[in-house]
Amino acid sequence: MGPLWPIQRCYRHGVWDAGGGPHWQWGKRTFVMGIINATDDSFSGDGVADRLDEALALTRELVAAGVDIIDVGGASSRPGADPTPLEVERRRATRVIGAVRAELDRIGAELPISVDTTWAEVAAPAFDAGATVVNDITGFRLDPDMAPLVAERGAAAVIMHNQRGRPHTDLVADVTAGLEASLQICADAGVGTDRIVIDPGFGFGFGVSQNLEMMRRLPEFWSLELPVLIGTSRKSTIGAVTNAKPGDRLFGTASTIVAAICAGIDVVRVHDAAEMMQAVRMTDAIVRPSP
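User: That's the sequence. What structure does it adopt?
Assistant: Structure tokens below.
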């Protein structure tokens, strides 16, 4: 691996249109995705289910912190979580996204909203409610209707590699093969790469040592020439290393974010937006100095 900075990435496309707001110019700074878990069983303990007053308060906090996009999910993806009935996930995601969209419009915040789901039946009403991005932890490999829906709506997408239930050989080779399979699904459905961000899937089917290896090898995913998102916030690997509970993993999370930015990551997904924005801005000032 080469030096951590200066970062010299190669992208297929220089900008990304997440819909409903300004275009994101890659390579200039790190973008931040703030999380709203519209669930009761989030691993991080911050779920708001469909309690709109809590969702709106969190929306205002995320805006005040300076996030670039708000990610809303109506089902928990933690290991061992009970499956959420589709109608419950759809109701939660749609209600919260509609309320968040109205609140963003009310306060004049031009932020896109992503819906964190693997199902087209959830994504479609979420788009109607105001989402313009789908964040799919299966990389369009579970629901065959998802990629065509994204193409039809002209939406953007975060496609993640998920190693759960798949044999492991070499981390980067496994992740790259999975992402390439997802990109082929996108191409077949007509979802252009100018609307895609990739996510290697930290914590999804990988153990502690493999997740740490992923962090060390992040620059190897540059070969796909697409912007990369990483979601390490509060995850169990941080707890395993630091012996901290999810709500006490601020410094561990910040360490992973700093390391990811130094490795050339483009987007970080976070719970504790105000604190993580400090880490992002300080690290950007060091590794992505203005010309």
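DSSP finds nine helices and ten strands in the chain.
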